[in-house]
Design goal:
The chain is mainly β. It is 0% helix and 54% strand. A hairpin with a 4-residue loop joins strand 17 and strand 18.
Length: 382
């Protein structure tokens, strides 16, 4: 007969337990808890059993439970590990969601992603009921507040930027040279402040224009995943004829006793930006004798043309032997100056009273009393 004996060998083991814990914002430790591990074989704790929860810093930690197995034929220790992985619960990096505002709108529609933390939390509050909305130009922030089951709360932000797509009007001033009907104007090609592509061929940034106001337009198209629109950039061109000021006449009277007058005038500067090329006066002043004069100023413009502007000068006065006299108080008799008197006349260089004398010969300045015979006179008797 055969008799059997059954033998069973069991493995005494203690599977490792892994616990994940979190550390709240602005904290250095977080709470972790676990179940007390036990071996699969009969055993008694070799040392006091550690608590099944505790505060831990960020990183990996291990809590060990040591048991002793005793039997009639075997005695050994077995260790049960609890691995604890502590991670900081934090918001994702702050994201900025940008949108371009249409030129004809006051607000832009923006969508974004909720800033969910990297740990298990519950949304507690938010200043947006949905991750989208209408916003004016500028920078905005949306906040989401979450709560963790261990008791802490945290707020995560989303930044929103709405930019206006603009194209400031450019103004260009151009000039038309003398005896011309058109002038050259040039400018920089304008571009919008937002990404855009030309909708039509770009006009040349220069051209010939008549006097007056003109406008050149550049049309662009902006395209994005959520927005498509056209924007027009204007270049306003103001063409003005470059011309001299009206001719001015500067008059001066020679002072008594002087032979010349000192005259000052204003340079006849044109109404456009020019450079003085030449002039027949080194300064806007000078000494002039009796008469009329013209001073000319020639200017050059960067567009290539030149122009000449005039100033007229008139010097007046009464001269006696080349010196000016005062006609209100003085009389010149053949180069001799006399004080002006009522009832007096010149006779050559002499100045006589017509009530008491008479002039016999102006060439020789002969004067005799009234009624007397002039010297060397010839009388004919009839």
């Amino acid at each position: 007969m055969t008799c059997d004996v059954n033998i069973e060998v069991e493995v005494c083991e203690c599977p490792t337990q892994t616990v994940n814990g979190v550390i709240g914002p602005s904290r250095t430790q977080g709470l972790a808890s676990w179940e007390i591990p036990e071996p699969t074989c009969p055993a008694e704790p070799k040392q006091p059993i550690p608590e099944f929860n505790g505060l831990f810093t960020k990183g990996e930690h291990t809590v060990q439970y040591v048991y002793t197995h005793k039997s009639a034929s075997n005695t050994f220790d077995i260790t049960c590990d609890v691995n604890i992985n502590m991670e900081a619960c934090k918001c994702p990096p702050v994201q900025t969601f940008k949108e371009i505002l249409r030129p004809d709108a006051s607000k832009a529609f923006v969508t974004w992603q909720e800033p969910t933390p990297n740990c298990e939390v519950t949304l507690e509050s938010s200043d947006s009921t949905a991750p989208d909305g209408l916003f004016t130009v500028g920078k905005h922030t949306r906040q989401y507040t979450y709560r963790h089951e261990t008791g802490f709360s945290m707020t995560c932000d989303v930044n929103i930027e709405v930019e206006a797509c603009e194209c400031p009007t450019q103004t260009v001033n151009g000039v038309i040279g003398p005896s011309r009907t058109q002038g050259l104007a040039s400018w920089e090609i304008p571009e919008p402040t937002c990404p855009a592509h030309p909708k039509q061929p770009i006009p040349e940034p220069k051209g010939l224009f008549t006097e007056g106001e003109h406008t050149v337009q550049y049309v662009y198209t902006h395209k994005s995943a959520s927005n498509t629109f056209d924007i027009t950039c204007d270049v306003n061109i103001n063409m003005e004829a470059c011309k001299c000021p009206p001719v001015q006449t500067f008059q001066k009277t020679i002072s008594p006793g002087e032979s010349k007058a000192f005259v000052t005038w204003q340079e006849p500067t044109p109404n456009c930006e020019v450079t003085l090329e030449s002039s027949d006066s080194t300064a806007p002043d000078g000494l002039f004798t009796l008469g009329k004069y013209t001073r000319q100023y020639t200017y050059h413009h960067e567009a290539g043309f030149s122009m000449t502007c005039d100033v007229n000068i008139e010097v007046e006065g009464e001269l006696c032997r080349g010196k000016a006299i005062n006609p209100d108080t003085e009389v010149c008799c053949c180069g001799e100056v006399h004080r002006a008197q009522s009832g007096y006349k010149c006779c050559g260089v002499e100045y006589y009273n017509t009530l008491a004398h008479e002039c016999c010969d102006e060439t020789r300045a002969n004067i005799v009393p009234k009624g007397e015979r002039c010297p060397n006179a010839v009388y004919y008797v009839k």
